[in-house]
Queue: 3 jobs
Job 1
Amino acid sequence: MTSRILVIASGGGHWQQLMEVRAAWAGQDALHVTTIAELPERFEATPFRIVPDCNRDDKRAILACGWALGRLMLSYRPHVVLSTGALPGVMALALGKMMGARTIWLDSVANAEEMSMSGRAARRFADLWLSQWPHVAEASGAEYAGSIL
């Protein structure tokens, strides 16, 4: 039986890094979720869904993203949720955790000095909480399993 895996990242570097580790879910039933419509096609990441982007400063956008993610997760019912960030990924981890999914956070390699704000928020929802920098992992209590760059 294949696992249903929801992989999610905001556009830009978060999505780029998520695509760098896609061999991890090869052969599984993976649904790719991002906030920019052109990205999945550019990376040949199918099937995919687009959700509204959000950040901590725009409460309406948070509600719109949460609503879209909730509907998506209820229909897809993932066994695993994996995110590289940012806020939409944290929200997906929280929803996945409530639904009984295993959750994985891989913090961005761009955060070389400390765990990102989204990464700190994701800690409470992540079964596996990773940093790509050994010293950041040690300081934050995250696990280090290597870097993707």
Note: DSSP finds six helices and seven strands in the chain.
Job 2
Amino acid sequence: MTERSTKAPIDVLFLLVGRGGSKGLPGKNLREIGGLSLTGYKARSALQSRYCSRLIVSSDSREIQNEAIKHGAEMLFSRPGELATDTASSSDVVLHAMDWIEAHEHRRYDAIMLLEPSSPFARPEHFDEAVELFMARDAALVVGMRETEVSSMFVGRLGPDGSIGDIVERVLNMPALRRQDQAPEVTMNGALYLIGWDALRQHRKIYADPTASYGVLMDRLHSIEIENAADLAFASYVLESGMIDASPWRKPS
């Protein structure tokens, strides 16, 4: 756990993003787990973070916009069509929101928290930990991370003829083959991206400065990413079987 920074809290804009044209799972951002949409999960959790100064939505879809508003987000603009394609980058989507805020409200935030509904189970404390790490390290970027299931030592390309020579070469040079003997490795889990406002203005891309980039480690279940129907079914099973605590996403009674 990151030690709490002694600095004054920073002003963080939370940005919930979602486009209407998902191909892997049509209507993905509005799909439900336990009666709540993926958009609703991310909005409810974000608003419980102690560092959420404001939550806004960026989407080209009126249905997603309405769903986000229903769960407490503000809609300031509709995302332009050119930023709602398969090829549009997350950096450009965030920069568009920043441009709008600066042009129409004449203000800036210290950082922006990019939130994608496809990783619905991030909890308020994960966002809090990310902000506290960001402050403690004077970071430019903090992202959600999870441990990989397989060491990169066992990962490679399958040749056109089915060959796996590069993987076998690495295996032959390893001092130990047992999985438990390999050092843990991590990868991004899509749950959160906390980016410095000035850093994104300077570099115009999310991944820019290796020396100022950090990760918040999350467990496998809270790191579930939904890209297809099988992922959605697994996430539903995890929630309904009580494998994770659903209290952050329940409506107050």
Note: The two ends are 31 Å apart (CA to CA).
Job 3
Amino acid sequence: MSTTKLAAEAWGSVLRAHAVLVPEMDRRLHEDGGLPLRWYDVLLELASADDQRLTMGQLAERVVLSRTRVSRVVDELQAADLVRRDVNEADRRSSFAVLLPQGRRAFEAAAPVYRRLIRELFGHHLDRAEMVVVRDALGRVAADQGSVGT
């Protein structure tokens, strides 16, 4: 098999896995953890940030699932009283998304469910060595995208 064909098949596997796993993860996280996956994605990034706040631009760069919809997701989270928006005094054209205490609690309640679902839906199908290969290989692919075209 040619390298090009193998690469195309590997790419197809990544797309199929994503297409199957993300909706199932979303459904089960919402049912068992009380949050849709897009909310969890944003809350995870805010919980991990210094001062538990990020500008909308920073948040858009960090989230995995809803980059193009970050502002809408933050609006949903704000309506649910899980985050608030603060004006960025250094650049009044932008704002911060700030994790509220109840947002932190919602994130912490959903985190064990999220980790369990990763094990059940993804990790269960791979042994430890395969997980390392997938992590490292896809990590290299993602890291290299910053240098494409430069």
Note: The two ends are 31 Å apart (CA to CA).
